[in-house]
Amino acid sequence: MEAWALLIAATLNAGTLVALAALGLLINERAGVVNLGAEGMMLVAAIAGFAAAVHSGSDLVGFLAGIGAGALMALAFGGLAIYLNTNQYATGLALSLFGAGFSAFVGQNYVQAKLGPRPSFAVPGLADLPFIGPALFRQHPLVYAAIALTALLAWALARTRAGLVLRAVGESPESAHALGHPVRRIRLMAVVAGGALCGLAGAYCSVIYTPLWVEGMIAGKGWIALALTSFATWRPARVLLGAYLFGGVTMLQFHLQGQGVQVASQFLSMLPYLATIVVLVLISRDERFIRANMPASLGRPFHPGG
After folding, report:
1. Superkingdom, according to UniProt (predicted)?
2. Average pLDDT for consecutive 10-residue bins of the chain (306 residues)?
3. For the purposes of burial, counting CB atoms within 10 Å of the CB of 144, is it exposed (0-12), middle (13-18) or buried (19 or more)?
4. Which fold has domain 2-113+124-293?
5. For the chain, which terminal residue's Cβ has fewer other Cβ atoms within 10 angstroms, N or C?
6. Is the pTM of this model over 0.90?
């Protein structure tokens, strides 16, 4: 039972990393913008957050540095793709490649660096409960913040004027522009907000989840977050569920190894990504379902002049 409680706790921890980034990308895509640069943004944010935490001794400073790095890179992407009308897919790929190279270069001096003692967290009165205490109530505050953010985002998209305007921009930017909404400004704000969440995810990876800096440490999680938006059919609650599914499969390999299951480690390492591919293939079989939920103007540039 203790081993299963630890598996659940590790699943929530691993899932939070992907969920934060995926929720940010969902905001982008609800506004009609596809940003393939999540991997690069998360890598730059990871080294920025780790370096800031090392020098300041504060995890909070590290998170803020990661958020700033992600938002800055997203701002550059938005300026190119939204205002200069460069191809969104090519610009995102370039951002991802730049982030991988830049983070590797900047991070050379931090490979051996170490953070101070890691704090432990517990919800008073609940953390000591048998099984569910260690499974659910000894998590970093960002784990609970990700759940709260999911609920807030779902409510905002469905119930608030800002959320409805964001969705309108993603569905028909021409109609939103005709109604007087600044489409490109709204898209830029959505992209920057998404970049900030990707940055928070990157900083969480290097400051809390690992915690250390290694070149390429995001290891494809940015691409998984991008895939989760389609898996979740652009709905926040499903994004969180998909993130926990990925986190559970990721942690399952370590759980099986700990239980002495004789399976090749290479195959176990493949499991999270294999599971993601299988789910995407199954979902993609129903094109009408995807089209009914996908923002109609996803990936399409908008030119106010015509």
Report:
1. Bacteria
2. 85 94 96 96 97 95 98 97 94 96 94 88 90 92 96 96 95 93 96 97 95 92 91 90 88 73 70 74 68 84 78
3. middle
4. ABC transporter involved in vitamin B12 uptake, BtuC (1.10.3470)
5. C
6. yes
